[in-house]
């Protein structure tokens, strides 16, 4: 069973930056970051597959960068020019197999514990 451990959340002012990390205990095919704001449904933020092909939701394009280190099975999310609308609990997710569905809506079998990001 692959496990995910996240780190790097926190509180910043508008325009600031944060970097999230997610360490996987084994191989993953597709990994991604999802977030859930209070009172809202969880949404996909960014995903990346084993060939380092990224996908972003529209609201973060140009501000967030997803990357992964396949040598250490670690996923990153560099978040720049943060705005209050980015506030939420950010979850790392992973799956070991490809899917016919788009990366931001496909199913992921493994989830991290979540890390809070607050932008004021």
Q: What integer value in Å does the Rg equal?
A: 13 Å
What is the residue-averaged pLDDT?
95
β content, as a range?
Answer: over 45%
- Report low-confidence residues grouped into runs of 5 or more: none
The total strand number stands at: 11
SSE order: EEEEEEEEEEE
Roughly how much helix do the residues carry, as a percent range?
A: under 10%
Largest sheet features:
7 strands, mixed
What general outline do the C-alpha atoms trace?
globular
Roughly how many Å apart are the termini?
Answer: 37 Å
Given helix and strand content, the structural type is mainly beta
Number of helices: 0
What's the structural blueprint in terms of helices and strands?
Blueprint lengths: L3 E4 L2 E3 L5 E7 L5 E7 L6 E7 L4 E3 L7 E6 L4 E6 L8 E8 L14 E2 L3 E5 L1
Parallel strand pairs: 2-11
Antiparallel strand pairs: 1-3, 3-8, 4-5, 4-9, 5-6, 7-8, 9-10, 9-11
Describe this structure in words.
- There is one protein chain.
- The protein is mainly beta.
- The chain has strands at 4-7, 10-12, 18-24, 30-36, 43-49, 54-56, 64-69, 74-79, 88-95, 110-111, 115-119.
- β4 and β5 (43-49) form a beta hairpin.
- The radius of gyration is 13 Å and the shape is globular.
- The relative contact order is 0.32.
- The model has no long low-confidence stretch (mean pLDDT 95).
